[in-house]
Every structure is written in C-alpha cells, then in structure tokens.
Design brief:
Chain B: Keywords: Cell membrane, Membrane, Transmembrane, Transmembrane helix, Transport. Chain B: Its main location: membrane. Chain B: It is a multi-pass membrane protein. The structure holds two protein chains of two kinds. Chain A is of the alpha/beta class. Chain A has 19 helices and 20 strands. In chain A, strands 6-7-8-3-9-10 form a six-stranded mixed β-sheet, sandwiched between helices. Chain A has a six-stranded mixed β-sheet with strand order 16-17-18-13-19-20, with helices on both faces. The longest helix of chain A has 18 residues, at about 180-200. The radius of gyration of chain A is 25 Å and the shape is globular. By secondary structure, chain B is mainly alpha-helical. Chain B has two domains: about 1-100, no CATH class; about 105-330, MetI-like (MetI-like fold, Orthogonal Bundle), CATH 1.10.3720.10. Helix content of chain B is about 75%, strand content about 5%. In chain B, a hairpin with a 2-residue loop joins strand 1 (about 80-85) and strand 2 (about 85-90). In chain B, about 35% of the residues are buried. Classes of the chains: A alpha/beta, B mainly alpha.
C-alpha cells in the first residue's frame, strides 16, 4: 500500500481552480518534490493531504489517501489523529509558524500530548529529546525559550522537532528553507536527509527552488496552473526534461557554476563613478551598540556591475543604503565623481527588494515614477507625463499603465515600475537591493535581463546587492562577499566563484544547492568535511 | 530577570514624571480661570473689603509659580491654614481646603474614595468575565447564530445608557421580584456581606455597559490571531479546536484587553457619575460634579489629580502585566 495516493485531486476556491486533476503516489520511505512557481497550486496540494481545507469553503474533489486514511471521507477525529500523528507538516516561515507566547518545548509537548496519552512531564521530556535530535545545542535549557529568542535556522529545526515528536510516517515540508540563508538552508536539508535515512519516513517536499529539490528527493513532479507538467525520477526530469515548460524553468534558474554569458571586455581604464572609503555604520548606543558595516571600501566604475553578496545580517543592505545616501555613515565617506557627498543625489538611485511595499498603494504607478521628476523641480505636467510614459515603455510596461495602481500588477511588473522610478532621475549609478529575490525564477530572469539591457544602453553602473550567489554571478563583473559587516573577499566574479580564497566564500559556495543530484550528494559530503574543520 | 526589573523601574519613573506634569497642567488650567477666585470663594454677597481679605488669605497676589510651589509644599509636607479666627493644620498629602466648607480636600476625597473603588473594582471583575467570555464565545462560534445573537446583545449593551439599564434592573430586581433591597452603600469594614449585596446591582449595571467593548475587542483580537500562521500549525498537528481557541487564540487577546482595562478602570474611578447618582452612592464622581457646579477649585483640582493618579497607576500595572504576558515587550 502506498503511503500517499492521490487521484484526480481538484481544489477550487470560489471560481479559481488552484489544483486541477492531479494524481500521484508516494511509497513508504520515498521522497517526492512538488516543484512549481508561485500560483502553481503546490502548497494547496500539501494542505489538502492533511485535509486542512475542511471547513474553509474550498471545494476539494478527487480522492486523497494518506497513511491508510481516506482524507476526504474520514471523520474529524480520525483526521485529527492523522495530522501530526502519521503525517506531519513543516511550514515555510518558522517565525510565524510558532506561537510567540509559549516556550518552544511546551508547544512541542502540547502537540505530543494530543497524540499520546502521557503525562505533561513525559511530554516535556520528549520535546527535549526531539529538540536534541534536530541539533539544538543545550536542548533542555533552550526548550524554555520563546520563538523570538531563536535564530531562523533554529526555529526551523524546532518545527522539524515538532514534526518528529510523534514519529510520523510522512513528513510534508512546504518551502522549508525559503526564508533561510543558504548555509542554514544546507544544514536543514542535510538534517532532513539524515532523518529520512534514520527513521525511514516518507518526504513530500514543496518548493519553488529546483536546486532544493535536486538535493533532497528521488522523484520530481513539476506543476503549473494546478496541473502536473512532468513527473519522474529527479535525475531524469532535471537532467533531460521532456516538456518545454520544464526546460524553460530550468533554463531560467541561475547557475552558480557557469560564468557570466555576456562578460564585457574593456579597453580603456574605466572611470570611477562611486567610491566608498572606510565606511562604517553603527546602530544603537551603549551596551546595545552594534556595528552593521565595518571599514568597507569599494569602487564602482562606469558601466560595470558590482555584486555584493552575503547572508542576512551581513550588512549588505546597510551598505547599499549608505551608498545611495539614505543612511549617513558613522565613519568614512561616500565619494561621487571624486567629491565627498552628503545626502541623496539624483545621480545615484535605488531599486528596492519588495516591489509591493516600496510602492505607495494609494497612488497610481505613473505618479510614483513621476516623483523623482517633481523632486528635481520639473513642473510642466505635460512633460512629466510624456517622460513617465517613455520610462514605462522603456522597462517593458505600457504607457497606458500610468493610471493603474500597484495591486493591478504582478510582482515582476511592480519591480519594473521600481526600475522605471529609479531611471526617472537620469542616474549614473543604481543600487539594487535584492531586486529579484521576491520573484519567481522565470520573472527573475526577465528582470535581470532588463537591468543588463539598460546598463548597456545607458552606461549605468549597477551595485547588485543579493543573498543569492547564483544570481549575483550571473549579473556581476566584480563581486564583493560580505560577512558580519566586512568584505571578506573581492575580485572579478569568475575568479571569486571559481577560485575562492576566503574560507567563508568556500563555505557559501558549497552550500548552494546543485541542480544535479549526483553533484548534490558530493557537495553534501564536502559540507560535512567543511563543518568538521 | 534584570531586564524585567529595569523595565518596571523605567515605567515607574515615567509614571512619576507623568503625574508631575498632570499636576502642573491641572493647577494652571484651573487657577488661571477667568473670574475672580476670591469673589467666588467669598460668595456673591461679600463686600469688596471682605473679598480683598479672602484674596490675601489665598495668596492670590503672589505669582502663579509661587502659589504652585506652596501647593507642592502642602502635598509633600503639609500646611497650616488660618481661617480668620483659628488655624487649621492640613497634614502631609495636603490638597488645600474646600472653598465651600473649609474642610480638607484630602479628607473629603478619602471619605469618597472607598465608595468609588468598591464600585469600580467589583464592576471590573464582572465586566472582564462577561466581556471576555462573550468575546471568546463569539470568536469560537463565528458566523453562526450564537455569534449573531451575542453581537446583537453587545451592540445593545453599548447603545443603552447606564441609567436605563440601572433603572430597569432596580425596578425588576428590587421592586417587582423583591430579590434585593434597594441599594444603599454599606462600608466594607462594617459588614462585608451587606457591602456586596448592596453593590451587586451597581456593579452589574456598570459592568454591562463596559463589557460590550471588551466583548468586541476580544472577538476582534482573537479572530485576528486565528488568521495567523501559528494557528495553522497547531491545526495541522491535530490540536483540537478547543485548545486552539482557548490556549492559542485567547492569548493574542491578552494585550489589548489589558490595555483597555487599564484605561477604563482609571476613568471609571472618577467617571461613573451616572451609576453613582442612580444608586445613591456617595463616590468621587458625584462629589466632583458638585464641586464643579459650585466652582470649589481646590476640591476639583484635588479630585482631578486623584483620578489622574488612578489612570496612571492602572497604566503602569497594565504595562507590567503586558511584559509578563509577552516577554518581547521588555526587549522593545
């Protein structure tokens, strides 16, 4: 009997059909990844396996059988025993997935006691045991901590511990590493791998990241618009995809091991546009003082892209904001065109990470793009409109979009609006802070291509700040790797990626998921060696 | 827990500063009122000479800051007042003498305070039980008949004036059913049992009004929490709806309920005038209205300060409870 048997699954929310006739099986102890872009219905499938749509108004059709339970027909009580007892789920955002008011150990114990008739004390002991099992150091003491006292990686470990508590047959992991840094992601994926080997539980992994799937599963099911596009062993699907969509998807995934396609060859010595000298930035005072950026010096030349890569908390966003002049450095200076500069200036613009929150939802996108023009003193409405229309078309939108509002656009389109706004001031340098990290890979590829095009056409210098090593390699001429506020390594992109000198850079690169399952296995053992060093 | 101790201390210092600011503002606002204070104090039939005498007694010739300084001195060290023939000593927390009765304001307030506090404390217990209970029920039964009924009742509660509820209660319970005697204030120290029986109706009528706000707040906060990700986690782990509601969702309603309660408690100490009047309770609210009517400034200032004191104290207590309930507060 299969662990999971889904036939003809459909899920409808009102008139929207999120999952459309999906069928698949998962055998005991096997691992399957549902891969797809946002809106493909993959997370909906995960929730449907536990019957989480019951009572929410969603219409679920077809048959779902998990660990011998008919999820569609089972009475509430049987479904409750299935959830967490036989099939446990790990969610995407580990901070919001735990109750902020209770100690982590108590939350795990509570779940354990739902499924087993044991005393509070025994349940608490079990919680400590599983926390220890997933590698939380000093588990007894840390089990009394609240979620906010844990780091992102530790929270995800705690959630996995909760899943393990009742020794389920199936683990459903919904984007378990999406909110995590790449090195932490590697640790969590390795942990899942080890746990699977030891407990023999089945794994259903839901992810948008093909690399994560390649690292973790035997079989892949590619989804689009609620339907299965391609289904098969991981090496076959990722190695020689048979469907055009899978090929496009894989083609859009930036590779960390491939050199940049359009590397420019320079003849004349490039002119320095922006320069940072000994930049330092502290936040807080007294005992809480914290240095976000420490003694960073950089030069950015005309027409080149400097990639700044680092994990969360490395100070890369703070650095970007200082370069634009949104933050004043505590020490050091930013020089533009050879002169020390204070405050923002039109020639240095910024594109922000989150295209949703960086546009005012109550103003039309045309008005947002017009802001920099007005700020420069342009007052002729006709000319402003004309210029904004031109800019919108330049970034691949339509001039008629002027009067639309941000919510009418997709994520990628909103980021194009953000780019148009940055271009409005005729900048020479654009600092892009995680410009594509909120986007799907295919959209991501389009936005990256647009930035490259604009750069060539307008001779822009770009500072590309991102946590994604592969994207940074794809776009950058030079790369700076940041860690704890300092630059640990800087140089031409290919040199840094192919022959990293700093151990931290090596560690980062080893943590990037590989698209080839064989290489993934090699990297996994390489990581173990690095970890023991 | 040193972080917590420091947090509580900072809040306490903040409260003292706030109280001082309140005292300055209240003093200035009331004593810079238009109109001749001496004339008011003396009464309409006083001759100009008598008014002049009173003005001297009250040090009205001194600049405002000097008078405020005397006022502070009185608060901290006590003060002597000469009332023509005799000298009256007004001891430590001295808020001055009533223009009307020459009685010490502090004594006056101390006589009324137990009544008001009895009313508000008992009522608070009731409104918390009724309000939070109703809120939990309607969050749990959202979308069903129970919730719609409860929402209707709480809405009616907010909309009905206290004197209507109080009167109806009195007529039905005391008049027609004769379950209770008509309320008459009995001091707690005299007879605790009679104290409670007599206050039952006032408690209930004040609580019914206040409970409505708590019910709506609790319901809203719980529904908000129920939409959060961690609730989904516990449902996905087979935790029953009773635990999800009673343990996890209710916890999210703690903070807003504590905050609202602090405000309502503080303002009810001096603000339950209608309830006090209706049930003939000689509390602060009634006395304050009387003092305002006859422009008895020392009494008004003293009472406003005492009410301010309770609002501030209630908020400090709320802040500390907040921090106990959610330790992230201490970090912020």
């Amino acid at each position: 009997m299969s662990l999971v048997n889904v036939t003809g699954l459909t899920v409808e929310f009102g008139s929207l059909r999120a999952v459309d006739g999906l069928s698949f099986r998962l055998e005991q102890g096997a691992a399957l990844a549902l891969v797809g872009e946002s809106g493909s219905g993959k997370s909906t499938v995960a929730s449907a396996l536990l019957g989480l749509h019951r009572g929410t108004g969603a219409r679920v059709g077809g048959s779902i059988e998990v660990a011998g339970v008919d999820v569609q027909e089972a009475p509430d009580e049987a479904l409750r025993r299935l959830r967490g007892g036989k099939a446990a789920m790990v969610f995407q955002d580990p901070l919001s997935s735990l109750d902020p008011y209770y100690a982590i150990g108590d939350q795990i114990a509570e779940v354990y006691r739902v499924h087993t008739r044991v005393s509070r004390r025994a349940a608490r002991a079990r919680a400590v045991e599983v926390l220890d099992r997933v590698g939380i150091p000093d588990a007894l003491r840390r089990s009394r901590s609240r979620p906010h006292e844990f780091s992102g990686g530790m929270r995800q470990r705690a959630l996995i511990a909760m899943a393990l508590a009742c020794e389920p047959d199936l683990l459903i992991a919904d984007e378990p590493t999406t909110a995590l840094d790449v090195t932490v992601q590697a640790q969590i994926l390795d942990l899942l791998h080890t746990l699977r080997q030891e407990t023999g539980m089945g794994l259903l992994l839901v992810t948008h990241d093909v690399g994560v799937a390649a690292e973790s599963v035997d079989e892949v099911l590619v989804m689009r618009h609620g339907r299965a596009v391609e289904h098969g062993p991981v090496a076959a699907v990722l190695g020689s995809p048979s469907q055009p969509y899978t090929r496009d998807l894989l083609g859009a995934v930036p590779r960390v091991d491939a050199p940049r396609a359009a590397a420019q060859v320079r003849e004349e010595p490039p002119e320095v546009v922006l320069e940072a000298r000994g930049l330092r930035r502290e936040f807080g005072r007294g005992k809480r003082a914290f240095t976000a950026v420490d003694d960073v010096s950089l030069t950015i030349h005309r027409g080149e892209t400097l990639g700044v890569v680092g994990e969360s908390g490395s100070g890369k966003t703070t650095l970007g904001r200082m370069l634009v002049g949104l933050l004043e450095p505590t020490a050091g200076q930013v020089r533009y065109d050879g002169h020390a500069r204070v405050g923002v200036r039109p020639a240095v613009q910024m594109v922000f990470q989150d295209p949703v929150s960086s546009l005012n939802p109550r103003r039309s996108v045309g008005e947002s793009v017009a802001d920099p023009l007005r700020a420069r003193g342009e007052s002729d409405e006709g000319r402003i409109r004309e210029r904004v229309r031109e800019l919108l078309e330049r970034v691949g939108l339509e001039a008629a979009h002027y009067d639309r509002y941000p919510h009418e656009f997709s994520g990628g389109q909103r980021q194009r609006v953000g780019i148009a706004r940055a271009l409005a001031a005729d900048p020479r340098v654009i600092v892009c802070d995680e410009p594509v990290s909120a986007l799907d890979v295919t959209t991501q590829a389009q936005v990256v291509a647009l930035l490259g095009e604009l750069q060539r056409e307008l001779g822009l210098a770009l500072v590309f700040v991102a946590h994604d090593l592969a994207v940074v390699r794809q776009v950058s001429d030079r790369v700076a790797v940041m860690r704890r506020g300092r630059i640990v390594e800087e140089g031409p992109a290919d040199e840094v990626y192919d022959n990293p000198r700093d151990p931290y850079t090596r560690q980062l690169l080893a943590a990037v998921p590989a698209l080839d399952p064989r290489i993934a296995a090699q990297r996994r053992s390489a990581r173990r060696e690095l970890a023991t060093l | 827990m040193s972080g917590f101790g420091g947090f509580a201390l900072r809040r306490l210092v903040g409260a003292v500063v706030t109280l001082f600011a309140i005292s300055v503002i209240v003093y200035v606002v009331f004593y810079v009122t238009p109109g001749n204070v001496a004339q008011i104090t003396c009464g309409p039939r006083c001759s100009p000479a008598q008014v002049q005498q009173v003005a001297e007694q009250l040090h009205l010739g001194d600049p405002l800051y000097v008078r405020y300084w005397h006022f502070l001195e009185g608060l901290v060290a006590g003060q002597d007042y000469s009332t023509g023939t005799s000298v009256q000593h007004c001891s430590a927390p001295c808020l001055g003498l009533s223009y009307q009765s020459d009685q010490q304001v502090t004594e006056l307030i101390l006589a009324k305070l137990p009544v008001s506090l009895s009313l508000v404390f008992g009522s608070m217990v009731l409104w918390l039980i009724l309000g939070v209970g109703t809120g939990v029920l309607s969050a749990w039964r959202r979308g069903r008949l129970t919730e719609r009924l409860l929402t209707g009742i709480t809405l009616a509660g907010v909309a009905t004036p206290v004197f209507v509820i109080g009167l109806v209660l009195m007529i039905v319970v005391c008049g027609q059913l004769q379950l209770l005697p008509f309320p008459q204030y009995v001091d707690f120290t005299d007879d605790p049992e009679q104290w409670a029986w007599n206050l039952l109706l006032p408690w209930l009528s004040l609580a019914l009004i206040e409970a409505a706000a708590f019910a709506r707040l609790t319901r809203a906060a719980m529904l908000e929490t129920l939409a959060e990700d961690h609730i989904r986690t516990f449902r996905a782990y087979g935790v029953g709806e009773r635990s999800v509601i009673g343990r996890h969702a209710l916890r999210g309603a703690f903070a807003p309920v504590i905050a609202l309660n602090a405000n309502n408690f503080g303002s009810a100490v001096g603000g339950a005038v209608l309830t006090e009047t209706l049930f003939g309770l000689p509390g602060i609210g009634q006395e304050l209205v009387h003092a305002v009517n006859v422009v008895d400034l020392p009494v008004v200032v003293g009472m406003v300060l005492v009410i301010g004191f309770f609002v501030v104290v209630a908020n400090v207590v709320a802040d500390v409870l907040y921090a106990v309930a959610d330790r992230r507060v201490v970090l912020a």
